[in-house]
Amino acid sequence: MESSEVFKLIESKYPDALKSIDLEGIEQSVTIDVNSIADVCNYLKTESELQFTSLMCLSGVDYEDKMEVVYHLHSLLHDHRVTLKVELSRDNPKLPSVSGVWKAANWHEREAYDMYGIVFDDHPDLRRILLPDDWEGFPLRKDYVVAEKYRGWTIRKIKEGFE
Amino acid sequence: MGIIENKFRDNVIITSADKFMNWARLSSLWPITFGIACCAIEMMATAASRYDQDRLGIIPRPSPRQADLMIVAGTVTFKMASRIKRLYEQMPEPKYVIAMGCCATSGGPYWQHGYHVMKGVDQVIPVDVYVPGCPPRPESLLEGFIKLQDKIRRESIATTQAA
Amino acid sequence: MPDLKTEEMVVQMGPQHPATHGVLRLEITTDGEIVRKINPHIGYLHRCFEKHCEELNYHQIIPFVDRCDYLAAMNNEHGYVMAVEKLLDIEIPERVEYIRVIMSELNRIASHLVALGTYGLDIGAITPFLFTFRDREKILDLFEMTSGARLLYNYIWIGGVAFDLPNGFVEKCFEFIDYFLPKLKEYDDLLSYNKIFIKRTAEVAIIPPAVAIEWGITGPNLRASGVDWDLRRDEPYSIYDKFEWDVIVADGRVGVLGDSWSRYYVRVLEMEQSASIVKQALEGLPSDENVKSAVPKKVRPKEGSVFFRSENPRGELGYYIISDGSDIPYRLKMRSPAFCNLSAISDVGEGLLISDLVSLLGSIDIVLGEIDR
Ligand code: SF4
Question: The pTM is what?
Fold first, then answer.
């Protein structure tokens, strides 16, 4: 099934959830409303025509004025794929977790939290995953400034005048 | 320092004892198997068939308690740094450290942008021999072993001026 | 006998543990010898790969891509450059495609050899390690001939490869294939059908197909569970559709489908297929084309994004690249196969014996560099 057909199905089932469809470029995607992302994902996974059984990737993106979470789904059975996006405000990035839909989302969401500070509601175990628990800041945010020291160790050893 | 160091003055007997003890120490360096990153694969290659570090009496041990050499083979991150320190402290005296690869020596490729990479393992533990390269070839690691053996050959248990 | 009071104990496994293949820490709650709960801690090798991608231009990222999965650097490069080429929309000379496939498949063999050898070590067999590394060195010699490096190559470039194949490579490679194929029998005798090895691995740590898909397990681990899926065949990229080869799916000939032994043996059989692909590619190698003719001077993709997956020795390696029109990616996310494969461990590992956990961990063949990035 083509991505555009999947988008139509979503539109007919959840008319309010669909915010915009992007059919330009290499990758076609659809933007879903924050609050209904878990429902839409559940529908995509369980509907017999679609059966997006695997979550290939879940990535956070920081666009200076907003945050985005991108879901790449794939169906092993029907061999089709789709890209979903969710837009979030930068001050309070918060959305429902899809770890109830695919277990694979568990670690991906923890990583997005670790790197961007995006909070996933109802996540069973939302902790930092890669960085130590006492790390400050979210390093992949565009405005992240590397601290001087961590537990007394120098982080950046850049010489004067060297760049 | 071990229990017999710095107990005696320099004399004829001590010189012979030195020779014997240094010979024993340098001929059976037992490194702790502690691969962190890419360099560890080259460390494994050094231990395997073609390069055969056994020729120098070097046999990897899985436990720090039985080891007298630590090869820091790979990138040291801040999350890892405290563990390295603890492992080093668990090793019995006399103990030596080889920093393998430019990551362990200085941060290597991650020097400039690696916010989570420690710029040189010598920030946490003292290093005896630095082996440069990314990754160092097994031959360079062997050269590092030989350099360390040279260093051990010059050691003495006699009281030094500084002590 | 009065009731014995038992209690659960938390045991730390790693980060320095010979069976964790690097710096993985598992916090296991045990009830005697039985693992009740696993809490994996990763990140001990987090080297800020994605941050580097936002600071360096498209060409400069290639060496860092190597360092993510250091056992399969060529495969990583191949996946990355294909993603960028898709973004740039450029055509690649045919000879380059052939060289890339030869390199990727050789690297797949090398990676599986390490997986086999170290798995043997985990289970307690030291000899196979020496045998597999002996053969791996021969592949590394071939790589060294072409790229100058043993482990991290920076060889596959956007639009081409760094150097053409050196004189005598093709003959040496044929020689290697002829040398290597009989060796597979040796591994079978040495390890695969060894009674002790079978006892340790067969019917241990079974991953049913549904669980595997749910957790996003891919690659040999998925095929060991009986799911017939290989990107090289099902979403053919590069020139994989030109060759004749089989996708290896486990059949549970020893033990059951999805156990540690199947995961191990899929790799053995896969090496045979890779060798056959290399052979076909060498035979069909087009002669004399400039391997750098399509290398762009400046990589400046249009605005947009691409998600591209390729088959790495450990599974599906995906790159999600967002370009803002400059020569530095705006965002690059790597979907690393071992990350997803490992995440299943807390589910699959429950209820196993501690020694079986080692058998499970070794059989999913993790590379921490890629998990932590
Ligand atoms: S020095 Fe190079 S090869 Fe060694 S750990 Fe660092 S990046 Fe890897």
Answer: 0.90
